[in-house]
Design goal:
The complex is a heterodimer of chains A (about 550) and B (about 425).
Chain A (H helix, E strand, L loop, with lengths): L1 E11 L4 E11 L2 E3 L10 E4 L3 E5 L1 E3 L7 H9 L1 H5 L2 E2 L8 E2 L6 H10 L2 E9 L4 H9 L5 E7 L4 H8 L4 H15 L3 E5 L3 H6 L18 H15 L5 E4 L9 H10 L5 E3 L7 E2 L7 E2 L1 H9 L4 E4 L6 E7 L2 H7 L8 E6 L3 E10 L4 H16 L6 E2 L13 H9 L1 H8 L4 H6 L11 H16 L15 E5 L4 H6 L3 E4 L2 E5 L2 E2 L7 E4 L6 H13 L11 H7 L5 E4 L4
Parallel strand pairs in A: 1-4, 1-5, 6-9, 9-10, 10-11, 10-25, 11-12, 12-13, 13-16, 16-20, 25-26
Antiparallel strand pairs in A: 1-2, 2-3, 5-21, 7-8, 14-15, 17-19, 18-19, 21-22, 22-23, 23-24
Helix pairs in contact in A: 6-8, 9-10, 10-12, 13-14
Chain B lengths: L9 E5 L11 E4 L6 E4 L3 H12 L6 E2 L2 E2 L2 H13 L4 E7 L2 H14 L2 E4 L2 H13 L1 E4 L2 H7 L2 E5 L10 H5 L4 E2 L2 E2 L4 E5 L15 E3 L6 H13 L7 E2 L2 E2 H12 L4 E6 L8 H15 L5 E6 L5 H12 L5 E2 L6 E2 L6 H6 L5 E6 L14 E5 L11 E4 L9 E4 L6 E4 L10 H14 L1
Parallel strand pairs in B: 6-7, 6-20, 9-12, 9-16, 12-13, 16-17, 20-21, 21-22
Antiparallel strand pairs in B: 1-2, 2-3, 4-5, 4-22, 7-18, 10-11, 14-15, 18-19, 23-24
The chains are: A alpha/beta (about 550), B alpha/beta (about 425).
Chain lengths: ~550, ~425
């Protein structure tokens, strides 16, 4: 099957293509080079006047796993108001902030997204996360597995074990859980909360193990680097949401000691203590630090106004935030000497000073980080807002007039404290394609996603070139997944199951003896059962291909 | 149909599907196709695995007459195609069976309702209204220095709970850990003991526990208290208890919703959970909801993630609509609103369908005995015995792999539902 996508305006930053009118060819699910003149074209799409990009990639979105299912259980009101009716090809589902997996997959595809990465998979909960992602249709999936408050790692560190042994454990965890990256959340803090500690500073010793968050960041970023895992350590820093946490954030950037580091939902970590309310934007300082640290990248975790739910492994922070729950209910859990979680519904309001300033802080980060390859478009779904708000966010970035109109609606004291109104920058389509396609693929080591050169997967999104960028990005005219049209005019027309992406770094199997001993003595499940088999992955994913990406060493 | 893998005669690390603890350390012998638990089995497991040895031989039946699986599936499909509101009930199955049931309910516009809904909805309603602070089994095992069990004895529902979570001396944080155990209610049945544990029993009236929790909350907050007793126990008892709770380093309050079989028990669970939350203003304390038996947490979890709603969800209008009252199997049968019942019960042959006059399709354990022969009976394998599968543990966190332990020709629930689905599409 040979398709020709004719005459679209192509934005493909990975290959330096900036809005050139081009023909694309698709053969057997991949982008193909220009065929010989006598080859038969099976189908031609005339894309004159259309904007063509690779399928979008969400590199940080909470789409599957225990905490999202707790959020679903907690929020019947969220679900009643937002049903997805079944059709001849799609399943009934529902939910605005915490949608079911079917609604999640359909809606992502209908916005032109073709890959999603779940950023907080607890090793003991990995099987559930993969089951949920397996039931998420349309998009490719992958996940980052969490370490850093698990007692096994903290004991290794407290005993002064060699980095090599820690690397083996990290690699074992990636293999057992089929993930593509390592995440650390409030390093050591989730464990410290189990000892009734309520805050954790970067250089504060863990109450039992004595190690500091900085120590944990150092050994994990080193493990990720030495194993050759493409994605840098994915860091949710200490002190999430705390006024004045900017110092922790800047310290965290330095803690990797020059190794690659990714700071996630950095908006929630960019707060100062200036002003009458002792809450201010420190986005400029954070953006400057990112600009001057080439080994650092960040995603924003933009706040947008409305009802949502926050779901995080950071039980310490979520307990602290539980008083702000709206509606007033929350769940906090300690989990299996492995990690924790907290689920707190939130309603961000533009007339609330703090929420309004959070909105502005996120936009300042977007507008002040110079290098679009090192800042990623996320709302930390659903923590800052549901992923369905992305088209609105894109318009805020691309349309200064619209942005300033919106700025005029927020709490006046927040307006007075933000520089958003004085920043002229407008993102171009090329830059949006970097943030949402090329850069995530590069950061995750996905060689055949996020671009449109021959050999890439034919995941392609075609938009009408509408000056209202929100409308444009809400409902693409076509979405191709592996060469098939799966969305037409913003509606699913074919259901597919995507693929899984993972890495499988090698390790010395001696670590398995220590894990078996640890699990037999202390845990309530066997170490063997942590390991998810290839057959399980196949069955969970409705037969989806599992792609193993190479580690560089 | 399950494949026939080579099954070794001695199998280690077997996960047991017969209660919500899903212990995964059983040692099992499978010699000559006979499954015997050699080590780490509790009374429930021994009996259930042994029951599995005596069944077999029965095949599908249509109106009591032996039939092929294909004919039984086709008959089931015909009944379902003619139905205006089918109920897919029971749902005692593994993850794979629950996934298939969700797909079938969506296709048919039916209702999903687990046989234990009435029990675990006592917890779900609390999650929906106010939430909780909770913990999981390994945290209890390593950290708890105070365990309060509210309502029941735990042991009869979850026999190895104390052995696995409390009685061990070797923890991550040092050997010789001791954990005080306090029962609110009858405690362990007369004549039985928990090895290694000398519990304190506060023999209060379980139906009045909500009042006791209210009193404890008032005492904890230092509010003036008028009551001289609660739940049949004097104020001094509760005052002493709250002082003990306040000094716990890691306290745990466990309950099984099944031990609160009285109207509006969700309010008892809620007052328990609010007390635990308030204990966390100063210290650390966690709830431990115990459930998960008969695959209830498994089915609820699968349907939650697929559709946004768990048990008691109707797809009759083409969208998921959840209603704990309207979509109960018992009510739909009593009011004549449902016209076909699909009953799924693959873990315990004693869990037979409720009495009803509407056509019933049973996917059940082979030895199942019926007061009234169902329209269609399809014997199915038990996950973790006849075929592989997955089951969620009580904590909603750990999903464990179940394995096939004996040669079996019995199809799984997922297999049968797929066959019915295929027959629907052919019609």
């Amino acid at each position: 099957m040979l398709l020709k996508l004719k005459g679209g305006r192509v934005y493909d930053p990975a290959n330096g293509v900036d809005g050139e009118i081009r023909d694309l060819y698709v053969r057997d699910g991949q982008i193909a080079s220009t065929p010989a003149p006598d080859e038969r074209i099976d189908r031609e799409y005339d894309l004159g006047g259309r904007v063509v990009m690779a399928g979008a990639i969400d590199m940080h979105t909470h789409i599957g796993g225990g905490k999202m299912n707790i959020a679903r259980a907690m929020l019947p009101e969220d679900h009643r108001g937002d049903p997805v009716a079944r059709t001849a090809i799609t399943r009934a589902s529902c939910g605005h902030a915490a949608p079911g997996t079917f609604a999640t997959g359909y809606r992502y595809a209908e916005m032109g997204y073709t890959a999603c990465f779940e950023p907080a998979i607890l090793p003991v909960n990995a099987r559930q996360a993969h089951l949920e992602m397996g039931d998420t249709p349309m998009v490719d999936k992958g996940g980052y597995v969490m370490l850093g408050s698990d007692d096994f790692l903290l004991r290794l560190m407290a005993a002064g074990e060699d980095q090599k042994l820690i690397n083996d454990y990290v690699a074992w965890t990636l293999q057992a859980t089929h993930c593509i990256g390592i995440k650390v959340v409030n390093p050591g803090g989730i464990s410290a909360f189990k000892f009734n500690q309520r805050t954790m500073q970067l250089d504060e010793a863990h109450p039992f193990y004595g190690v500091t968050p900085r120590d944990i960041l150092r050994v994990l970023s080193r493990a990720v680097h030495e194993l050759g895992v493409p994605h840098p350590l994915h860091v949710h820093s200490s002190n999430l949401g705390v006024p004045g946490n900017v110092d922790t954030t800047l310290g965290t950037i330095r803690a990797s000691e020059g190794l690659p580091i990714h700071l996630t939902h950095i908006q929630f970590h960019s707060y100062g203590t200036e002003g009458d309310r002792k809450f201010s934007s420190a986005a400029a300082r954070v953006a400057e630090a990112v600009n001057s640290t080439p080994n650092a990248s960040c995603d924003v975790g933009q706040v947008l106004f409305g009802q949502t739910v926050t779901a995080s492994a950071d039980s310490m922070s979520q307990q602290r935030n539980s008083g702000f729950a709206n509606p007033p209910k929350y769940v906090v859990m300690d989990i299996e000497c492995d990690a924790g979680c907290g689920v707190v519904p939130f309603k961000y309001r533009d007339r609330n000073f703090v929420n309004a300033l959070q909105w502005a802080v996120g936009l300042e980060i977007f507008l002040l980080v110079n290098d679009p390859w090192r800042v990623f478009l996320t709302t930390d779904h659903p923590n800052g807002a549901p992923f369905t708000t992305y088209p609105h966010l894109i318009r805020l970035l691309m349309d200064r007039t619209f942005r300033n109109e919106r700025l005029g609606l927020i709490h006046p004291d927040a307006q007075a404290l933000t520089t958003v109104g004085s920043i002229d920058r407008e993102y171009s389509l090329y830059e949006i394609a970097i943030l949402t396609r090329a850069a995530p693929a590069k950061l995750l080591g996905l060689a055949d996603l996020g671009h449109l050169a021959p050999g890439a997967r034919a995941d392609i999104t075609v938009y009408r070139n509408d000056p209202d960028r929100e409308r444009m990005f809400s409902a693409p005219e076509y979405v191709f997944k592996d060469g098939d049209v799966v969305v037409r005019d913003g509606k699913v027309v074919k259901v597919t199951w995507g693929r899984y992406h993972r890495v499988q770094p090698e390790y010395d199997h001696g670590i398995e003896r220590r894990l078996k001993d640890h699990f037999d003595r202390y845990q309530t499940m066997r170490a063997d059962h942590m390991r998810i088999t290839p057959d399980e992955m196949h069955a969970f994913g409705h037969g989806a291909d599992v792609v193993t990406h190479p580690c560089r060493r | 149909m399950p494949a026939s893998p080579v099954i070794p005669e001695a199998v280690s690390n077997v996960a047991c599907p017969f209660c919500g603890l899903v212990c995964d350390d059983l040692e099992v012998s499978t010699a000559a196709g006979r499954v015997t638990v050699q080590a780490n089995g509790c009374a429930l497991a021994l009996a259930a695995f042994e029951r599995g040895n005596s069944d077999g031989g029965t095949g599908p039946r249509i109106d009591g007459v032996p039939a092929s699986l294909a004919d039984a599936a086709a008959t089931a499909a015909r009944l379902l195609l003619g139905s205006r509101l089918p109920v897919i009930g029971g749902l005692a199955t593994d993850v794979e069976g629950a996934r298939a049931a969700g797909r079938l309910a969506d296709r048919l516009g039916g209702v999903l309702d687990h046989m234990n809904s009435a029990t675990f909805l006592r917890n779900t309603m609390v999650l929906q209204d106010s939430g909780w602070i909770a913990t999981t089994l390994s945290e209890v095992r390593n950290r708890a220095d105070l365990l309060i069990v509210a309502g029941g004895d735990v042991v009869s529902r979850f026999p190895r709970f104390f052995e696995r979570c409390i009685a061990n001396g070797d923890t991550l944080f040092g050997e010789g850990r001791t954990c005080d155990v306090i029962f609110l209610g009858p405690g362990v049945p007369a004549g039985s003991t928990i090895p290694g544990i000398v519990p304190t029993v506060i023999p209060c009236d379980v139906t009045q526990l909500a009042a006791a929790f209210g009193l404890l909350r008032a005492l904890l907050a230092g509010r003036p208290v008028q009551a001289e007793s609660a739940a049949g126990m004097p104020l001094a008892t509760w005052r002493a208890l709250v002082e003990r709770m306040k000094v716990a380093r890691y306290g745990v309050m466990a309950w099984a919703a099944g031990d609160f079989p009285f109207p509006h028990a969700e309010l008892t669970v809620q007052s328990l959970c609010e007390l635990v939350k308030e204990l966390n203003l100063e210290g650390r304390f966690s709830g431990l909801p115990l459930g998960g038996s008969d695959g209830d947490i498994t089915a609820d979890a699968v349907h939650l993630w697929q559709t946004g709603f768990g048990s008691r969800t109707s797809f009759g209008q083409g969208i998921p609509e959840n209603d704990a009252y309207h979509h109960s199997t018992a009510r739909l049968l009593a009011r004549g609103e449902a016209d076909v019942l699909v009953w799924i019960s693959s873990l315990n042959e004693a869990r037979t369908p409720p009495p009803t006059s509407i056509p019933t399709i049973v996917l059940g354990c082979t030895g199942m005995a019926f007061e009234r022969e169902p329209a269609v009976f399809i014997p199915v394998g038990t996950p973790g015995l006849d075929h592989a599968g997955h089951l969620f543990r009580t904590d909603r966190v750990v999903a464990l792999p179940l394995q096939q332990l004996r040669p079996s020709t019995l199809p799984s629930v997922a297999d049968v539902l797929a066959a019915i689905h295929a027959a629907l599409e052919e019609s």
